Amino acid sequence: MGIRGPYGKGFALSGTKHLIVGGGAGMAPLLPLIQSIPSRHTMDVIIGARTKAELLFESMCRRAGAQVHITTDDGTKGQKGFATDVASDLLAKKKYNGIYACGPEKMISTLLQVSSRRKVSVQASLERIMKCGIGVCDSCAIDGLHVCTDGPVFSGKELMKLEDFGKIKRDLAGRKVPV
User: Fold this and answer.
1) Eight-class DSSP state of 52
2) CA distance linking residue 26 with residue 35, whole number of Å
3) What backbone torsions phi and psi does residue 106 show, to the nearest 5 degrees?
4) Which of 24, 39, 9 is nearest to 108 (CA)?
5) What is the pLDDT of residue 6?
6) Which among 56, 85, 61, 89 is positioned nearest to 73, based on CA atoms?
7) Could you give the strand order of the β-sheet that contains 67-72, starting from the edge strand earlier in sequence?
8) Mind listing the pLDDT tens digit for each residue in 102-135?
C-alpha cells in the first residue's frame, strides 16, 4: 500500500486578525489552520451545522485560543441561522486581515459577497468530489481548474472569476448538477 499527498495548495495566513468560517464537515480542513495560528494573533471562529449533534471541534478551537461562535440551522445550539449571518455581523463590528473558509459552496458564495463589501480577502477550501487526485478524472473540475491540483484552497479573487462557482458541481457519475 502506498500513500500519496497532500496535493494542491493550502491556506496561507496573512496578518494577525483572522475570521475563520466552517460549515459542517468543512471544519475538518480548518482545524489544522486554527491550531497553527500563533497565540499572539486574534481569531474568531464560526462553526455552523444543521443541528447541535453535527457541530465539530468546538472545544479544540477554544483550546487553540479562538473566540468561538456557534450557529445551527435549527437553533439547537448557538445562534439560529447560518454561519454567514454571524460572519456579516462580525465584519460590521471588527476589522480582519483575512477570512478563511470551508463548507457548502452556497455558504462560501454568500461569504464572498459579504467580504467584498467590506474589502476583506478570502481564502476558501472547496468541497468537491475528488477521485484521482491528479487532475485526470475531471470529477473535481470547475471552469477548467481542478480542485485536487489547483486548489483545494482558492482566493476570493479566483472564485469570483469562475462561472460555475456557487451554481454547478459534478455528481458521483461526473454529471453537472446544480449546487
Assistant:
1) G
2) 15
3) -60, -40
4) 24
5) 60
6) 85
7) 79-80, 67-72, 42-49, 17-23, 98-102, 122-125, 153-155
8) 999 999 999 999 999 999 999 999 988 888 888 8
Q: How far is residue 101 CA from its own chain's centroid?
A: 2
- DSSP secondary structure of 151-176: -BEEEHHHHHH-SSTTTEEE-TTS-E
For residues 140 and 153, give the distance between their C-alpha atoms in angstroms, rounded to a whole number.
Answer: 13
What single-letter DSSP state applies at residue 125?
E
Q: What is the dihedral of CA 81, 164, 154, 27, to 10 degrees?
A: 30
Residue reference for cell 489547483: 150
Q: Which three cell numbers stand for residue 178?
A: 446544480
* Number of other CB atoms surrounding residue 61 within 10 Å: 24
Q: Identify whether the C-beta of residue 166 lies closer than 8 Å to the C-beta of residue 154.
A: no
What are the structural domains of the chain? 16-125 (3.40.50.80), 128-179 (no CATH)
Helix axes 83-93, 105-118, angle to 10 degrees: 10
- Chain centre distance of CA 81: 17
Which residues contact residue 43 at a Cβ distance below 8 angstroms, ignoring those fewer than 6 apart?
Answer: 17, 18, 19, 20, 34, 37, 65, 66, 67
| pTM score, whole prediction | 0.92
